[in-house]
Design goal:
heterodimer; A: mainly alpha; MetI-like fold; 8 helices; B: mainly alpha; membrane (chain A); transmembrane transporter activity (chain A)
């Protein structure tokens, strides 16, 4: 029987952490882009698009991410696409992230006081100009803390992709726990790795939020 | 696309789904009630409790909020037996849900307590109430009332998150879908059905929690009016 040293376990876990980071970044970037499209549809003038995006958001926020992963894994196959776990994982996480980011950002846009719209309208700005020069720059500023905060959810969400067979740090942990018979150590280390990834993000979200509140009080 | 959807399996497998739904409901009932109770205690510890307890709670909250639920579950079910703490899969799932919701709801309830005007604490003290009495009779209920919608959302999130407990062989709704697809090879249909059931459960749970909130806080609102 092979003996696993602690350093060997740690090295294997850190190696797999790379995939957690890559998947988190891709999901966040892709989800951000799609979320932006959804945001404009949601706050735009077309009623149909509004209802469509609202339904999309309800669907993705009201069902488990695990189910979305399963549906992507087995559902894409129905279209004759050969689905590797990483494809299903990326697709599902992007769709899921987009739903949440669009909703967060919509809140930021609607938080802009009505007077700002009226003031820019009275300056003869078109809808596009109002958005571009008045509303979005202000909404962008208040959207930063909750967006950074949500990135923690994305990192934690990638853990579920281990269930459809994507080998990131959780899956590596499961494999190692089975091979080494040291589940306490292995899962403790995996938890520590996630903590090291997530804590800086959630801490900076908290700091940014506090700074924003101070700025508001002036 | 030449795939034909086939839902014939429903006739045979609906009891599996039914018992899966019942397990998911039991999990969120226990997890929700005990989790909120733990959250109230932790919120008290952080705002009014002794300093050392506040620190322990702060570390607990940050540890839970910055690690995935799946890892917490694996740690409890696979990790703890290694140091002699054994429990069955349902107990492990419930414990994980309580610990998880406890941390999140502690932060939400703390926000409610911190939004309580200082005069409320002083008014309680001036009536010769002990700090605990003031917390229990004066501060807690209005604080809960303020943050109830956020707390309801968090309970729904934990219910949806509970789908991963099938990974430690708890026979919940997700387990029912896994079981059915492994017997019938109708994977897409099985997961599609359970996704819709989860959506329904989420809508019903949110509605029930908000109505429950209206009910328990109704007398208060009438009294303050």
């Amino acid at each position: 029987m092979t003996q696993f040293t602690l350093s060997a376990i740690v090295m294997a876990l850190i190696h797999a952490t790379g995939w957690t980071v890559v998947l988190s970044l891709v999901s966040f970037a892709g989800g951000g882009l799609l979320g932006l499209v959804l945001l404009f549809a949601r706050i735009g003038k077309s009623r149909w698009l509004q209802i469509l995006v609202k339904g999309y958001t309800e669907l993705f926020q009201g069902t488990p991410l695990l189910m979305q992963l399963f549906l992507a894994f087995f559902g894409l196959g129905l279209f004759g696409i050969d689905v590797a776990p990483w494809v299903a994982a990326t697709v599902a996480l992007i769709l899921w992230t987009a739903a949440f980011l669009a909703e967060i950002w919509r809140g930021c846009v609607t938080a802009i006081p009505k007077g700002q719209w009226e003031a820019s309208a009275s300056l003869g700005m078109t809808y596009f100009e109002q958005m571009r020069h008045v509303v979005l720059p202000q909404a962008l500023k208040i959207s930063i803390p909750p967006t950074v905060g949500f990135s923690v959810q994305v990192v934690k969400g990638t853990a579920l992709t281990s269930i459809i067979g994507f080998v990131e740090v959780t899956k590596a942990g499961t494999i190692l726990a089975n091979a080494t018979f040291q589940p306490f150590t292995v899962y403790g280390l995996v938890a520590l790795i996630y903590f090291c990834l997530c804590f800086p993000l959630s801490y900076s979200a908290k700091v940014l939020e506090r700074k924003m509140n101070v700025a508001h009080r002036h | 696309m030449s795939y034909h959807f086939n839902f014939d399996w429903v006739a045979t497998y609906w009891p599996v789904f039914l018992s899966g739904i019942w397990m998911t409901i039991q999990l969120i009932l226990v997890g929700g009630i005990c989790g909120i109770a733990l959250g109230i205690f932790c919120a008290w510890a952080r705002t009014q409790g002794p300093r050392w307890l506040g620190w322990i709670v702060a570390i607990y909250v940050e540890l839970i909020r910055n690690t995935p639920f799946l890892i917490q579950l694996f740690f409890i079910f696979f990790g703890l037996p290694a140091i002699g703490v054994h429990m069955n899969e349902v107990a492990a799932a419930m414990l994980a849900m309580v610990i998880n919701l406890g941390a999140y709801s502690a932060e939400i309830i703390r926000a409610g307590i911190e939004a309580t005007p200082k005069g409320q604490f002083e008014a309680g003290a001036s009536l010769a109430m002990s700090p605990i009495q003031t917390f229990r009779h004066v501060v807690l209920v209005p604080a809960l009332q303020k943050i109830w919608p956020a707390l309801a959302s968090q309970v729904v999130i934990v219910m949806l998150g509970s789908s991963v407990v099938s990974q430690i062989a708890v026979q919940d709704l997700t387990y029912a879908a896994n079981f059915t697809q492994s017997r019938t090879f109708r994977a897409f249909e099985a997961y599609f059905a359970s996704t819709l059931i989860y959506l329904g459960l989420a809508i019903v749970l949110r509605f029930a929690l908000l109505r429950f909130g209206d009910m328990i806080f109704a007398t208060r609102r009438r009294a303050t009016r």
